[in-house]
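## Example pair
The file below holds two records. Each record gives the amino-acid sequence first, followed by its structure token line.
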Amino acid sequence: MGSKNKLKRFKENETFSNVIQPSREELVNADFDLKGKWRSQYFKNNNPIVLELGCGKGEYTVSLAERNPDKNYIGIDIKGARFWRGAKTALEKSLPNVAFVRSQIELIEFIFDIDEVDEIWITFPDPQIKYKRTKHRLTNTDFLKQYANILKGNGVVHLKTDSEFMHGYTLGLLHGLGYEVLYANHNVYRNEGSPDEVTSIQTFYEKQYLEEEKPITYIKFKPN
């Protein structure tokens, strides 16, 4: 994407009512007003809150929101030029249960309060295979602790990835931590019984992976 196009999207994001772009300072200084008040102040209902972390173009956020009008969906990504597409689509379709936040995932506890979130989706994250990149892996121990803090007691996390490394790494960590693995599948399109929301929604990159015949893996788990 050219820099002109990116700038155009950044400008357009500023006009979108469903895009929130807090500064890092605002978050770490606890000046972010929506923390703990997403239901009452933003969505103005008491419905469950579902996050998509590293949401990219926001395909999962928008598709799930269309299917489940009784849930609130928030896509989070630092790359606003990407989720511009999802935000624009949600506005075009008049979806009141969709929001996008431009932020780094490691600041998630400054965005949401303890027990404020019901579900988390992590869709096709960068597996960060090199050892030095472990701290950026979205299912490392530090991130899992953050998810456990913002999730309700019965809250769940979904991980959908084309990376067998990420799938195996995460399963190993979950077993080591004693987290409850509710479902695990190393090839959701080949094995029967995969949840409908896993196979019927496909991201832009997922379609490419399927054309290359790469297996798509999925884990659903409950942090302690």
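Second record, same layout:
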Amino acid sequence: MRIVLGVTGGIAAYKSALLLRLMTEAGHRVDVVPTPAALNFVGRATWEALSGRPVRTETFEAVESVNHVRLGREADLVVVAPATADSLARAAAGLAPDLLGNVLLTATCPVLMVPAMHTEMWLHPATVANVATLRSRGVTVLDPDSGRLTGADTGPGRFPEPERIWAQAQQLVAASGSRASRPRAQSEAAPLTGRTVVVTAGGTREALDPVRYLGNRSSGKQGVAVAEAALAAGATVTFIGGAMSVEPPAGADVVRVESTQELHEAVLRHAPGADALVMAAAVADFRPAEYAEAKIKKAQDGTNPVIRLERTPDILADTVAARAAGEPMPGVIVGFGAETGDATTSVLKFGAAKLARKGCEMLVVNQVGRDKVFGQDTTEVTMLFADGREPVTAAGDKTDVGVAIVTELAGLLDRPARLDRMDR
């Protein structure tokens, strides 16, 4: 993979040297393009030694190869880390005073910008507007960490750890697939631009007493992969996460919940007005009917406690019902069906019945088990559709499956427009 690593003039530039090492050790060709200001923090010799490539900063260097256009066109990925407030403003305005500015204007691949600055700069209305502009154009802008900054102050604006940046970059490329080298205006690389998507992920925990709960094996990996694919496709994403073993997706508006009731309330609060809702969370169907205020102890006579269960809210059905009642719920609702099948009924038959029962537009069905799906990096799903179209199967890494799900979601969102065009 051909990567352009842009480095702008911030103290966090020294950490980008560690990011560069991660990229080159993974076998990728990396061209480092620092701004002139960045060289005040880390010199040209360091970048050339770590990348094994010549380093240029100005538009009129290597003009014989039309370098200011070639680098952007040939890149499979552009990462700007750190991205200062000034560089975000320049990129949003389309300015190109140096080589990096030209690369950003000619790149036809995924672009990841990693802001690092003082809290006041990050929260300034101008920076907030510039970040929103870049995201609306399909650029992925990673939210900075919160912590110790240059000097004695702390707050949001800290440069994320290089490992997190590199993981996000790889996910971004994976989400874009073979479309990474096509111009955005001529491809489907950002089919959800201007759309808002709500994604739920992870498992729910139903409290039994102050220390125990009923839960499931969901890791949240598939929901995170769907959210990241939606972000890469240009959507504004609200991510509602339960219990997970992975970090929430960078760039999404994150809402954390624990119980099914909390998830129910969060969905009904955030889904109205969105274009799509993807219910990837593994929701508990039952919860303890009584909550013990104190830890349940072992009885001295050896008897076992009896735990009575009750149903939890049916979030998917309630959301569809609210839409049918005229509330502004998403026009496309995607459910998930984790099934095991039995001696008489297959997983897909159970899924088809659930799709008809729930009333959503699409149901993602997979077979689960102790060593299947939950917590794994790979999966296989079949997507069923309420409009009767042929089912679609996707298998492999959960990142790839997330892209496949978002691809079908984009098609469902575009369907009314296509039908309207056909009618005319």
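Notes on the second record: Residues 178-189, 369-373, 417-424 have pLDDT under 50 and may be disordered. The first helix runs from residue 13 to 25.
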